[in-house]
Design a protein that fits this description.
Blueprint lengths: L6 E9 L2 E5 L5 E5 L3 H11 L4 E5 L10 E3 L2 E5 L4 H20 L10 H21 E10 L6 H8 L4 E5 L7 H4 L5 H8 L4 E4 L2 H15 L4 E2 L2 E4 L8 E7 L6 H9 L1 H13 L5 E8 L6 H13 L8 E8 L6 H21 L7 E4 L5 H10 L2 E4 L8 H9 L6 E5 L12 E3 L4 H13 L2 H17 L2 H20 L2
Parallel strand pairs: 1-4, 1-7, 4-6, 7-8, 8-9, 9-12, 13-14, 13-16, 14-15, 16-17, 17-18
Antiparallel strand pairs: 2-3, 5-6, 10-11, 11-12
Helix pairs in contact: 2-3, 3-4, 8-13, 9-12, 10-11, 10-14
The structure holds 6-O-phosphono-beta-D-fructofuranose.
Length: about 475
């Protein structure tokens, strides 16, 4: 680890890119953390000499800063009660459902809000401590929305960026939040506030206008009043659609061992004509139930024959102590059990259901093996799985079914765009994908691949960080 007070670039996110895992025999090791945020930021951090401030994924862990796989990590401890109130509670049972169109009902608890403030202050202190004078600090996601203003109050010399990886809801929904003003105030501490979609940035600036008055915003610029009556600042709110390290996924998918593994997967599934694939954290926003419903009806109606087609559903474990997630798991597993019980044969399953996370190598092989990729999210900030699938298909084959409610749909227009609530429409698109001629598959995939290559994760971070430095320079010269 380099001199900890000398970092010119710092990423702050709820999780570090690695989680501490303790095995039953007491041995401990590090495992890559779940989710798209880490997928996107890991290559950015590798390319820069920065430090990453975050939580190591287990309660009550007091760890010194350390280096793992070439990245300098600064762990922030959380007590078991804070994990419950700040992480499982306010972040994932208040903000998460609220920001995802209230698909599940958000809970509002004052003690969760208290914990959220305390923990945001702790992340702020950790970042302030390792930031060199004038450093750039890039704060990530909804768990840390108060950090920008807290950090500015403590270290006005810093250039502060914030990126929201999940949607920002329309004001009619956002307004439910009892602490709606404090959260907006927290975000406005940043010089640049980035969102996945133009619609999210618009929702945010509309919230600012509703809370601070109609003349506070103009285009992407926001006039931010000083907390101590000093001069106003300008903050920018703008869309920067996130992406993946396209070249590294493609390289992985081109390796002979990945191609061989894809062949093996197909063989192990009984060499069906069509493999459909879903890859999601087990989350109610992902529309897994809708996908299963459509698939079940296609089986029932004889549009799909078991043996001829199979659905592989990877559902990686997520937030398993939050009630809505426990209930979802029960529902999904009941449905999978019923469909398999009804339609599987001795030799062939209707659904291969896998409640695990897999390494990138296995994912690349699965993507290569899958004829149809099903992304049926009810609401999703971006959905990087859609981009990973496209990046891996160097053979210009495979069909992507993509929900219009995922941020990725703004860019990947040549996917088969679907509304997951419209089960008949979803079924029609699945059948269309099953029957799509090779020529059409290839031409759609080529165009999707061009789009994904044009905006990979380094263009995303370059464009965010360039805009951030420009906005900070402009704000300081006012
Ligand atoms: O992008 C949404 C997000 O919450 C990330 O912040 C996070 O890394 C990922 O999903 C996984 O969620 P969690 O950290 O709660 O397991």
């Amino acid at each position: 680890m380099t001199d900890s007070s000398q970092n010119d670039f710092i990423v702050v996110s709820n999780r570090l890119p690695v989680d501490r895992v303790v095995e039953p025999d007491g041995t401990a090791h590090w495992r890559r953390s779940p989710g798209g945020l880490v997928t996107a930021l890991e290559p950015v951090m590798r390319a820069s000499e920065g430090a990453w401030v975050g939580w190591a994924g287990k309660p009550d862990l007091e760890l010194e800063p350390f280096t793992e796989d070439g990245i300098d990590l600064v762990p922030v401890p959380l007590s078991a009660l804070e994990v419950q109130r700040y992480y499982e509670g306010f972040s994932n049972d208040t903000l998460w459902p609220l920001y995802h169109d209230v698909i599940a009902a958000p809970s509002y608890h004052r003690e969760w809000w208290e914990a959220y403030q305390v923990v945001n202050q702790r992340f702020t202190d950790a970042a302030a401590e390792v930031a060199a004078p004038g450093a750039t600090v890039w704060v990530q996601d909804y768990q840390l929305q108060l950090v920008p203003a807290m950090l500015r109050a403590q270290r006005p010399d810093l250039v502060i960026g914030f990126f929201n990886h999940i949607p920002f809801p329309p004001y009619g929904i956002y307004a439910q939040l009892p602490w709606r003003r404090q959260i907006v105030e927290g975000l406005l501490g940043a010089d640049l506030i980035g969102f996945q979609r133009v619609a999210d940035a618009g929702n945010f600036t509309r919230a600012v206008r509703r809370l601070y008055g109609p003349t506070t915003t103009k285009g992407t610029s926001i006039r931010v009043p000083s907390p101590d009556g000093g001069p106003e600042r300008i903050a920018i709110a703008k869309a920067f659609p996130i992406s993946i390290d396209v070249a590294s996924f493609e390289e992985l998918a081109r390796r002979p061992e990945t191609i061989e593994r894809a062949r093996q997967i197909r063989e192990e599934l009984g060499n069906p004509t069509t493999i459909m694939l879903g890859v999601d954290r087990l989350d109610y926003t992902k529309g897994i139930r809708h996908r299963l419903k459509a698939y079940g009806e296609l089986l029932r109606d004889g549009d799909i024959e078991v043996g001829d087609a199979v659905l592989v559903q990877v559902a990686s474990p997520s937030r398993e102590r939050v009630a809505a997630y426990m209930q979802l798991r029960d529902e999904i597993e009941l449905t999978v059990g019923r469909l398999n019980g009804t339609y599987s044969t001795i030799s062939h399953s209707a659904i291969a259901y896998l409640h695990h996370g897999y390494p990138r190598e296995e994912m690349a092989a699965l993507y290569l093996a899958a004829d149809i990729m099903l992304v049926t999210a009810l609401r999703d900030g971006m959905n990087l799985v859609a981009k990973e699938y496209v990046a891996c298909r160097h053979d210009d084959d495979g069909v992507l079914l993509l929900s219009e409610f995922a941020g990725a749909a703004d860019e990947l227009k040549n996917a088969l765009l679907i509304n997951p609530h419209d089960i008949d429409g979803l079924k029609e698109s699945m059948v269309k994908a099953l029957r799509m001629p090779k020529k059409e598959r290839a031409s759609r995939m080529r165009s999707l691949r061009r789009r994904v290559r044009d905006n990979d994760v380094s263009s995303w971070s370059d464009s965010f960080l360039t805009t951030l430095r420009q906005s900070a320079d402009a704000a300081r010269s006012m």
